[in-house]
Amino acid sequence: MLSVTIAHAEGRNAATEDVIIKADEMFQNQADETVIATGNVIIVYSGMTMTADKATYNRTTGMLTATGKLTISKGEETLRGESANLDIQSGRGEIDNGTLIIPQSNATITSKKIIREDELHLSMSENELTTCELPNPSWKFGAEKLNVNLLGYATGRNIIFYV
User: Fold this and answer.
1) What residues pair up with 74 in beta bridges, in sequence order?
2) How high is the mean pLDDT in each 10-residue block of the chain (163 residues)?
3) Given its phi and psi angles, is residue 151 left (phi above 0), alpha (psi -120 to 50 degrees) or beta?
4) Strand ranges in the chain using DSSP code E only, listed in sequence order
5) Distance of CA 68 to the CA centre of its chain
């Protein structure tokens, strides 16, 4: 397993944390400031740990793309999905075919697309929300679109209650 700590490119806020990447294989392209990591990728940044099969990080733009067996953990919350595009600078990110587990409320949300707007707000499309055990919950809400505040509430459109 290889490990590298990537300091941010010049012009960034000096207080910004470094991105730590570990993987079976890594390649750094000096010309375009990208790091490509493959095999058992682990990325640690700002209290978040991400694992994936492959990841690409652009030091100049702060963009991180990850695919394959994706898991993102921060605090007690866990997000799983097929792929992710994250902007390390702004905190905004998009996850495809994701499952978000929120232990504080015992909620699980599955979604075709999860967009993290900021630390507390998510918008999601083609969703299911339940506090029951998956994969066959005794009840769930289905929604075309959900806007979730991680402090404990959500609003949605075209909601169906399944029992």
Assistant:
1) 48, 77
2) 54 59 94 94 92 96 95 90 93 92 85 91 92 90 89 87 93
3) alpha
4) 2-6, 19-23, 25-29, 34-45, 48-58, 63-74, 77-87, 93-102, 107-116, 121-130, 140-149, 153-162
5) 12
